[in-house]
Specification:
The chain is built from seven helices and seven strands; from the N terminus they run βαβααβαβββαααβ. It has helices at residues 18-22, 35-42, 47-63, 87-98, 154-162, 168-186, 189-192; strands at 13-16, 30-33, 74-78, 121-122, 131-135, 141-146, 193-196.
Length: 197
């Protein structure tokens, strides 16, 4: 698979997953999730996917300041409904990273619910932020806001390919420019993602 080189420069998210350790999927339960893997899961790289990745990265760092984040022990809540503003994509990325399952679609657990990951992903939750992450072991939580417009307006870039003013040249150069936009967002995580403790 050929892909933009900058994907490999994005800092990976490293978590401890006790289920992965128990089942022998990852040595010592250490799971590393790279931006490329999230792109493959989502099927594309865009401002929404990059935003979800950055919110996970910054949110987990704030939620687990002195230890490795624990995959499977994080409740994920989103303000928007799944069908609203591509919140479903954000939820999918966050689910992939944290292990949080939506309703009964998550892992049911082993022997009396050990490693259970069901009912950890929720949409349409009333809050002032876009996303809230909560540790199920301590109850500590962190809220996050994603504002890509502080750096670039993704829709304005998109319109150069699909808008009424789009030209054959702008359509041809769009894929490269789109990924340059994503790269710019990922390079300005501190500006576009606000962590609210």
């Amino acid at each position: 698979m050929n892909y933009p080189e900058f994907f490999d420069t994005v800092k990976p998210i490293v978590l401890y997953d006790d289920l992965a350790e128990f089942l022998g999927s990852a040595e010592k339960g250490i799971v590393e999730i790279k931006y490329l893997e999230v792109v493959k899961m989502a099927g594309h790289s865009c401002g929404v996917v990059a935003g979800a990745y950055m919110m996970a990265q910054k949110g987990l760092a704030a939620l687990f300041p002195d230890e490795m984040p624990k995959r499977g022990y994080i409740k994920v809540e989103l303000r928007r409904q799944a069908a609203q503003d591509n919140a479903g994509v954000t939820g999918s990325v966050l689910s992939n990273i944290t292990g949080a399952g939506l309703g009964d679609s998550g892992f049911s657990g082993i022997q009396q619910g050990r490693f259970r990951r069901r009912d950890l992903l929720f949409f349409g939750v009333e809050m002032d932020a876009d996303v809230r992450l909560t540790r199920t072991d301590t109850g500590a939580s962190v809220a996050l806001k994603y504002r890509p417009g502080k750096v670039v307006e993704p829709r304005s870039v998109l319109m150069t390919a699909i808008g009424p003013q789009a030209t054959p040249e702008s359509k041809a150069s769009f894929p490269k420019r789109w990924q340059e936009m994503v790269k710019s967002l990922l390079g300005h995580a501190d500006e576009v993602v606000e962590v609210i403790s």
